[in-house]
Amino acid sequence: MLIFCHLCIGAIIGLFLARSTRDKGMVALAAIGSILPDLVDKPVGYLVYGDILGHGRLYLHTLLFLALLACAGLLAWRLTRSRAPAVLAGLVGLHQLMDLMWLAPVTWLYPFLGPFPTEAAVDLGGWLFSLEVYSVSEWVFLVVLALVGLSAVRGDPRPLAWGSLALLILGIATPAWLGGLPLHLLPDGMADTGPMLAFVSIGGSLGLWLAYQQGRAFRPERKLPRLTG
User: Do the domain assignments include residue 155?
Assistant: First the structure.
C-alpha cells in the first residue's frame, strides 16, 4: 500500500480511538503510527543504503520490531497507563498487514532468515512522485483523508458520510478496474495488492459510516430559542 492509503486507514481508526478515550490527539497518533515504518525505513533504505539494498522495507517492517514495540506498549500501560506505545504498535502491525509482509519472509522474519534482500536502486523522489500521482486510489484516499480531518476539526460528522461513499466506490471498482486506462488504480508493480486494496477500502468505508452514525448520535441538536410572551 502507498502513503495516503496507510494514512487514511490510520486516521479512521483514530476516530474510534478518540471517541473511546475522549482524546482527539488519537487521530493524529494513529495516523502517524500507520506510516511510521515508511517514515523510518524508506529514508534509510533509499538514501542511506540505496546503493546496497535499493528498497524501503527494513527494520520497522519486521516482526521483531513489532514484538519489541508491543512489549514496550504493554510496559508503558502497566507503569504509566499511557496508551500511546500500544496504539503505535497496533498501527505498525496494521501497516505490515496492509503491506502483505508475509510475502517477503526474509524481511518480515529478519534476522532469522538472513540479511535483507537487495533490489535495483531507484530514484526515490521521482519514483515516489510517479507512484502517488499516477495512482487513482491515492487521490481517493487523499480526498477521504481531508474529509476525515475536516470532520475532526469541526466536530461535524457529515463529511464522513461522503468519505464512506468514496471508499465504497473504490472498493467495488478495484476488481473491475481496466488496466489499460491512462491512470491506473495501482502501479503495475503493485497489482498483487489489489485484493488488499479492495478489502481496506470497503473496511474503511464501513468504519467511516459507523463513525458518521456515532457522530450523529453524540452531536448535540441545536435548539430553537423559546418565544416568551
Answer: yes
How far apart CA 78 and CA 111 sit, in angstroms, is: 29
Answer yes or no: are the C-beta atoms of 1 and 193 closer than 8 Å. Answer: yes
DSSP sequence for 119-155: -----HHHHHHHHHHTBHHHHHHHHHHHHHHHHHHHT
Span 133-156, mean pLDDT? Answer: 86
pLDDT surpasses 70 at 158? yes
User: Is 114 or 184 the better-scoring residue by pLDDT?
Assistant: 114
Q: For residue range 43-77, what is the model confidence (pLDDT) as tens digits?
A: 887 776 666 666 678 899 999 999 999 999 999 98
User: What is the predicted pLDDT for the residue at 53?
Assistant: 64
Residue 80, in any domain of the structure: yes
Question: What domain count does the chain have?
Answer: 1
φ and ψ at residue 23, rounded to 5 degrees: -130, 105
Amino acid of residue 15? L
Which amino acid belongs to residue 95? H
Dihedral of the CA atoms 70, 76, 81, 85 (nearest 10)? -50
Grid cell in block for residue 158: 457529515
Q: 2 with 137: CB under 8 angstroms?
A: yes
- Rounded to an integer, what distance in angstroms lies between the CA atom of residue 145 and that of residue 31? 10
Q: Is residue 211 part of a domain?
A: yes
User: Is residue 32 a part of any domain in this protein?
Assistant: yes
Tell whether the model's pLDDT for residue 217 goes beyond 80: no
Residue ranges making up the domain that contains 36:
3-218
Which three three-digit cell numbers place residue 170?
473504490
Residues paired with 185 in a beta bridge: none
Q: Which three cell numbers stand for residue 159?
A: 463529511
